[in-house]
Amino acid sequence: MSLPRFTQHALSEWMKGKGPRSDIVISSRVRIARNLSGLPFPMLATSSQSSEVVRRVEMALREEGRPSVLKDAELIRMDDLSDLEKRVLVEKHLISPHLAEESRHGAVILSQNEAVSIMVNEEDHIRIQCLFPGFQPEEAWKLADELDDWFESQLTYAFSETKGYLTSCPTNVGTGIRASVMVHLPALALTRQLNRLFPAITQVGLAVRGIYGEGSEALGNLYQVSNQVTLGQREEEIVQKLEGVVRQMIEHEHTARNRIREASFIQLEDRIHRSHGILSSARVISSKEAMERLSDVRLGIDMGLISGVTPQVMNELMVITQPGFLQIRANQRLDTEERDIRRAEMIREQLSLGRERE
């Protein structure tokens, strides 16, 4: 396995599978933040101390008896990547924008199927991330917990008997777990219910963020829903609370879809097919418009109003039409206009291939 494997292929294995409730829940993720005892947290660490963290993690990765998912995992140093390669890993949700842009001596450990991504020297020394298709936060938590136990058997974590695991950000102190799901909510957006729904979710201790997490924009009606606090709660409670709230969101989205179908079916059908027509024919399209149109078409697929295109094709297009991927595929830097032209061309090609495969 080599770096091009991670940067040239759009879909991680976890995005290909059709997981539970995948018509609304794109993916489930659990992230665990840990720091090593005796070393300053990344924001205060010297270059040599940051390098020591990478060395210790890499040594642990080579130990016998490690979890099977790590046996063929690869450690990639951020210093060895170009800005474009880092951007592609962000677009695939394998690393955070913070690791790509601000980390000193950062690295990432990636499993073959990209379901496991372990960031080193991000905000914390270690951030274990497990990604599953569809609505599977419990399964993601079980794998993350297994990996956490393994690393803790090899490394000494920073831990307080009263506060739990110590982290750079106070909101992660305690369990250090962040459980999240990525949901597609086009019907709730069309019926203007999100402004009521999101504040209610915040009041029960969850956060709603954009497609790439904190501080990012919501594109294509995709949102990340996650817990906000880790102190004073057991890991299982955090995951179960998230599951309960997301189940309600799924039901609200289904209800909204049914209402639109009943109240304004022709307008819905027209919107979806217009977006499909634009994507199939456009010669120039911006990233934002592409995501909006892809959201419409994905809704049409899930509601049985469009045939000949699979959800997997739409997942792939949502990745390969992003700026980093377009430029990696072109093997050159592209300005905004050039990216908009290539994006439209790539969408036309993929939709045409989808029809041929059918």
Give me some keywords for this one:
single chain, 358 residues, alpha+beta, Creatine Kinase, Chain A, domain 2, 2 domains, eight-stranded antiparallel beta sheet, two-stranded antiparallel sheet, 14 helices, 49% helix, 15% strand
Provide the CATH top-level class of the largest domain.
Alpha Beta
Give the low-confidence spans: none
The global form is: globular
CATH homologous superfamily heading of the largest domain? Glutamine synthetase/guanido kinase, catalytic domain
CATH topology of the largest domain: Creatine Kinase, Chain A, domain 2
Q: Largest beta sheet: what is the strand line-up?
A: 2-3-4-5-1-8-10-9
Helices and strands, in N-to-C order?
A: HHEHEHHEEEHEEEHHEEHHHHHH
Strand content: 5-15%
Instruction: Please describe the biggest sheet, giving its number of strands, its sense, and whether it closes into a barrel.
Output: 8 strands, antiparallel
Find the count of extended strands (DSSP E, 2+ residues).
10
- Report the radius of gyration as a whole number of Å: 21 Å
Taking the alpha carbons of the first and last residues, their distance comes to 31 Å
CATH architecture of the largest domain: 2-Layer Sandwich
Give an account of the 3D structure:
A motif (RDXXRA motif of the pArg binding pocket involved in allosteric regulation) lies at residues 339-344. One of its GO terms (cellular component) is extracellular space. It catalyses: L-arginyl-[protein] + ATP = N(omega)-phospho-L-arginyl-[protein] + ADP + H(+). ATP binds at residues 27-31, 93, 127, 178-182, 209-214. Keywords: Allosteric enzyme, ATP-binding, Kinase, Nucleotide-binding, Transferase. There is one protein chain. The chain is of the alpha+beta class. The mean pLDDT is 90. The two termini are 31 Å apart. It has helices at 3-8, 13-16, 47-61, 83-91, 97-101, 137-154, 186-190, 194-203, 235-263, 265-281, 287-302, 311-320, 323-330, 336-357; strands at 25-34, 74-77, 107-110, 116-120, 126-133, 159-160, 164-165, 177-184, 206-209, 222-227. It is built from 14 helices and ten strands. The protein has two domains: 2-253, Creatine Kinase, Chain A, domain 2, CATH 3.30.590.10; 264-356. The longest helix has 29 residues, at 235-263. Helix 4 (83-91) packs across helix 13. The strands form two sheets. It has an eight-stranded antiparallel beta sheet. It has a two-stranded antiparallel sheet with strand order 6-7. Strand 4 and strand 5 (126-133) form a beta hairpin. Helix content is 49%, strand content 15%. The chain is globular, with a radius of gyration of 21 Å.
